[in-house]
Design goal:
Layout: E1 2-9, E2 12-20, E3 26-31, H1 36-51, H2 62-78, E4 81-89, E5 92-100, E6 105-115, H3 125-144, E7 151-158, H4 166-173, H5 177-182, E8 183-189, E9 200-202, H6 210-221, E10 227-229, H7 237-241, E11 247-251, H8 260-266, H9 290-308, E12 337-338, E13 343-344, E14 357-360, E15 367-376, E16 384-394, E17 405-412, E18 415-423, E19 428-437, E20 445-454, E21 460-471
Parallel strand pairs: 6-7, 6-8, 8-11, 9-10
Antiparallel strand pairs: 1-2, 2-3, 4-5, 5-7, 9-11, 12-15, 13-14, 14-21, 15-20, 16-19, 16-21, 17-18, 17-20
The structure holds phenylalanine, zinc ion (2 copies) and calcium ion (CA).
Pfam families: Peptidase_M28
Organism: Kribbella caucasensis
GO molecular function, one term: metal ion binding
């Protein structure tokens, strides 16, 4: 639940956000006005880089490398740990710039990114100097702030997006799976200062809509109406989404035409493209709406300031006694309720420890199965974690569509809350540990439930072992 207050202080507009986190404690995070003057100066720099390098910042051309070097140098100076990651493309070598704020819990990574390359026909100032200037200025503002990040912030400036999302794909494909699992959120900004702007929020985030909804609430609090857009494979969040990582992003429009209803709510010109210079040589420093840029970068700031402090629970579960009985299923179904069958010593799938486990689904037809156990969480708890080990193998293609799922749920006197959803997108035939914060349920007796659901074809087996609910 987000609640916003707005007040002025010495001429600066601050937004105090009260983020209610699991466990019921509230953390107020004020996000500052991210400077549109500074972001515009970054765009001036991208324009001069293009002007000095044949008019573009295209993959394999000097204007791209100059853009990457310049962004990296700014972030280095601000105190980021940066990497220039090179990879080859049909148009030559390209580079991702990755910048990590070297503070906060590295087990919980919050990422924002933008593509830094232009098409070959122009300087790419709205597409995507705008997103890059916004992400860069937010990163610089965070470094200059007095914030102490609870989580690890990482910013990505992708190469070769215009050749088919090559940089972001290269990045995720070369991340060890343990590192992929640590990314809690990826936010994408591609075209945020379109001259005839719209305010679109990505609505193609199968791993969860929390960040999408936070973006909408933020814009609503600023009296900016939004529309959802299904961007699918059209920008760099797709690479993260295909790994099951929650994503979100914003977009001010490209070649599409603004309708009269959209012109009524957003101003601008109905019947004209959001960006008439999309992928053209005229996508230059004049091809910007600075009101759009200003609003969008403040939204980036709002998300970064708040997600930097979000409570993702502890990765190391508290070391107290395990409140789950028969947690490794070695006594069969003893202490567990639900549908009969999942708790098994069938050798078709390995147990993590011993020979028993809970093998939910795997039949490849429309069906559900569940298991659960009632647990009392002490009222005196100051930390409470539910941890489980899960192995997922699937015959589903693991593109970007969620088919079969297992939900980790808490049933609290008849109200069911889903803490996490794992799917074909999270497939991993090694057991992976997941840890979820359940402190919100202290003082209650709740049922910890695992609910598997399959659609009509292609099996997914969700195998769970060694469940623990510990408190301190
Ligand atoms: N990725 C597209 C480009 O760079 C722009 C775009 C962004 C289109 C988001 C749709 C949605 O050309
Ligand atoms: Zn483009
Ligand atoms: Zn783009
Ligand atoms: Ca076991």
């Amino acid at each position: 639940m987000l609640k916003s207050l707005r007040y002025g202080a010495l001429g600066a507009v601050l937004v105090a956000t009260v983020l209610v986190v699991p466990g019921g404690t509230a953390t107020a995070v004020e996000s500052p006005d991210i400077s549109v003057t500074n972001a515009k100066a970054h765009l001036d720099q991208f324009q001069s880089i293009a002007t000095n390098n044949g008019g573009n910042r295209y993959t394999g051309r000097p204007g791209y490398r100059a853009s990457a070097d310049w962004v990296k140098a700014k972030l280095d100076t601000a105190g980021y740990a940066t990497t220039l990651q090179s990879f080859s493309t049909s148009a030559g070598t390209s580079y991702n710039v990755i910048a990590e704020w070297p503070h906060g819990d590295a087990n919980h990574v919050v990422m924002a990114g933008s593509h830094l390359d232009s098409v070959s026909s122009g300087p790419g100032i709205n597409d995507n100097g705008s997103g890059s200037a916004g992400v860069l200025e937010t990163a610089l503002a965070y470094a200059a702030s007095t914030q102490t990040a609870k989580n690890r912030l990482r910013f990505g400036f992708w190469g070769a997006e215009e050749l088919g999302l090559l940089g972001s794909k290269y990045y995720v494909n070369n991340l060890p799976s343990a590192d992929r699992d640590k990314i809690e959120l990826y936010l994408n900004f591609d075209m945020i200062a379109s001259p005839n702007p719209g305010y679109f929020v990505y609505d193609d985030n199968p791993a969860g809509n929390g960040a999408r909804d936070d973006l909408v609430s933020y814009f609503t609090s600023k009296s900016v109406q939004t529309e959802f857009i299904d961007v699918q494979g059209r920008s760099d969040h797709a690479a993260f989404r295909s790994l099951g990582i929650p994503t979100a992003g914003t977009f001010s429009g490209a070649e599409g035409t603004k309708s009269s209803a959209q012109a009524t709510k957003w101003g601008g010109t109905a019947g004209q493209a959001f960006d008439p210079c999309y992928h053209r040589s005229c996508d230059n420093i004049s091809n910007l709406n600075l009101t759009s840029l200003d609003r969008q970068i403040d939204a980036i700031g709002h998300m970064i300031w708040n997600y930097a402090q979000k409570d993702y629970g502890t990765t190391e579960p508290p070391t107290g006694n395990n409140l789950i009985l028969n947690p490794g299923f070695e006594s069969g179904a003893v202490n567990w309720t639900g549908t009969s069958g999942p708790i098994t010593n069938n050798t078709g799938r390995p147990a993590r420890t011993g020979s028993w486990k809970a093998w939910l689904q795997g039949n490849g037809s429309t069906s559900t199965e569940n298991i659960g156990q009632s647990v009392g969480i002490p009222a005196s708890a100051t930390a409470a974690s539910l941890s489980l080990w899960i192995r997922i193998d699937t015959a589903e293609t693991t593109g970007s569509t969620v088919y079969d799922t297992v939900k980790v749920q808490i049933v609290d006197s008849g109200t069911t809350t889903t803490l996490a959803t794992y799917s074909n997108l999270n497939k991993n035939t090694s057991y992976v540990q997941k840890t979820l914060n359940v402190l919100a349920y202290k003082g209650k007796t709740v049922t910890v439930k695992f609910l598997g659901q399959e659609d009509s074809s292609l099996q997914t087996s969700f195998v769970i072992d060694d469940v623990a609910l510990t408190t301190s």
